[in-house]
Amino acid sequence: MPRTGPVEEAEMPTAIVVGAQWGDEAKGKITDILAQGASMVVRYAGGSNAGHSVTSDQGLFKLHLVPSGILNPRIDCIISDGVVVDPAILVQEIDELEKRAVSTARLYVSASSHVVMPYHRTLDRVDEEKRGGRKIGTTCQGVGPAYTDKVRRIGIRMGDFTDPKAFPHALHESLTFNNLLLQKVYDSEPMDEAQILQEYTALGRRLKPFVRDTAWMVGEALAADRRVLFEGAQGTLLDIDHGTYPYVTSSHPVAGGACLGTGAGPTSIDAVIGIVKAYTSRVGAGNFPTELLDEIGAGIRERGNEYGTTTGRARRIGWLDAVALRFAMMVNGIDRLAITLLDVLSGVDEIRVCKAYRLPNGKVTERLPLRNEDLAGCEPLYETFKGWTRDISKVRRYADLPAEAREYVEGISRLTQVPVWLVSVGPHRQQTVLTGQAREGLWLRELPTAGAPALSVA
Q1: 24 is a catalytic site residue
Q2: Pick from 26, 6, 97, 100: which is nearest to 305 by CA?
């Protein structure tokens, strides 16, 4: 749907928040901040395997399916077509938000989004077990099997799931096939269709009021030049096409997934914000060239509370990898960076950033090899930055950061060739610093303070 008029360069209504690493970059915080000035937040990919933590004056919220803009009651929050929805988890999230006086009156779920069923979780688990020593490290939330059924064209979409006439037929078709998989391929017990039908029909009744044709909602918002924020899940290096295959997720976390998963045309996107942790973390299996297996890595893990929101698993920790980041800048079209968890590096004497790899044949490359076997032979070549000792969690102006911290931030910008827009120095909204390097083109000119109401929306 075309826009109704020209867009001023200084006011760019649409932006994508995308993870530029292996996920867990604190996208939830940045989405929550931007949502204070938005009119719509759209989650575009993934499932309940994502965990977005948001800290406000009301405390810590751990979200898995509900968009991170939900704490602004004046905006529309949309779970779009590209997301696979576990109805049990979504109902639980809605109930928990309502208990904490967070309204879900403007939460909408796409009628075209696919449903994660209990047999998907079982298939996820038994498939991971069958892999033996080549486990992917999946969260076993059923996301991969749900996307498989979607592509196989036997998936159950939310519109049918919440229709009491259509759901029994859709369940029978899908479960008949998946029970055969469980029995014949995985040597597991089949699942009870009648039991699932009873339990999930009740969940369908609960979710029916939230279901809409959200592609039209998004299209109309874009045509009216409303401020629309697209929220990604996981990170670039976990993308099914562009990630470090096979140790990837089953969807498109990259910025292009915002168009695929919502129905938004690519010409409607104005800005892409890459979220970059001040170091690197990874969950699950796969090669990790800058991984730290020493006390420095352990210290960063503890200070950064690097444990999965969904699983509680300890995350693997490493130095920042600019080789991987440059790849992420390219495939996403990132035009500004938000650096998060900078405060976690306070007290580290020397901070390293990988600027290139030495290949097994001795050649040096600045390009990321995505084949897992090729990545295994890469030796990281580092640039070293002097650390800082001062606690920076109370800093609110960029100029007040220690000189060493500013040199590190500017070094990341130099190594990626992308300006840094924002630096996060803690989990709260107010623990955020605008750098002044890339404010133009976004609606947020100043950051919300503690206790402040949401900013006005278009």
Answers
A1: yes
A2: 26
